[in-house]
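User: quick one, sequence for these C-alpha cells?
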C-alpha cells in the first residue's frame, strides 16, 4: 500500500506515515523511491492508537482554611471576619528583584527577561495583600499603589490566582 492510502486509512497525514516508515514504527520498504507499507503492520499501529489510556480528570481545587494554611497562609479572625492571609503570593509571580544593601532595587526581571528597576518597583508595589475570605470561600487581592506598564491588573490577578491554584493542586 502507498503512503496516501495508508494516511487515509490511519486518519493521519502523509507526512506522519513517512515519519513512521523512517522510524520503523510500521513495516515498510522503499521501492523505486516510494514507500511500500505492510498492511498488517499499519493495522497493528492503528489498533495501538485506539487503545489510548483515558485522561485523568484534573484534580479539583478546594479553597478552604485548611488548604490555604497548608500552602503557607496565616489565619486571622476578628469578630465575624475569618481570613487567611497569603503573604507569599502578594508579589507578582515571575518577578525577580535584586537589592542593594540600602534596599533599593539593583536589578529586575520578569519571567527571566530583564526589565527596568522602576518597572520592577511598580510591579513589586502593585499588590498589597492577597487573602482568602472563609465566609464566602473566595481569594481576594487588595491592590497596592504601583501602576506597572508591563502587566495590567487582570494579568497580575491571573498569575496570582494561578500560583495559588497550582500550590493547592500540589498538596
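Assistant:
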Amino acid at each position: 500500500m502507498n503512503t496516501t492510502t495508508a494516511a487515509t486509512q490511519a486518519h493521519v497525514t502523509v507526512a506522519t506515515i513517512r515519519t513512521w516508515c523512517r522510524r520503523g514504527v510500521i513495516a515498510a520498504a522503499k521501492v523505486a523511491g516510494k514507500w511500500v507499507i505492510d498492511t498488517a503492520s499499519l493495522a497493528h499501529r492503528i489498533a495501538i492508537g485506539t487503545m489510548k489510556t483515558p485522561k485523568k480528570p484534573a484534580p479539583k481545587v478546594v479553597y478552604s482554611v485548611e488548604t490555604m494554611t497548608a500552602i503557607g497562609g496565616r489565619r486571622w479572625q476578628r469578630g465575624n471576619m475569618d481570613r487567611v492571609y497569603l503573604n507569599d503570593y502578594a508579589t507578582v509571580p515571575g518577578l525577580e528583584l535584586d537589592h542593594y544593601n540600602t534596599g533599593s532595587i539593583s536589578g529586575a526581571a520578569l519571567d527571566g527577561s530583564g526589565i527596568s528597576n522602576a518597572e520592577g518597583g511598580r510591579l513589586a508595589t502593585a499588590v498589597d495583600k492577597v487573602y482568602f475570605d472563609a465566609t464566602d470561600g473566595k481569594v481576594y487581592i487588595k491592590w497596592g499603589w504601583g501602576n506597572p506598564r508591563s502587566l495590567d491588573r487582570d494579568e497580575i490577578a491571573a498569575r496570582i490566582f494561578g500560583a495559588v491554584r497550582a500550590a493547592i493542586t500540589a498538596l
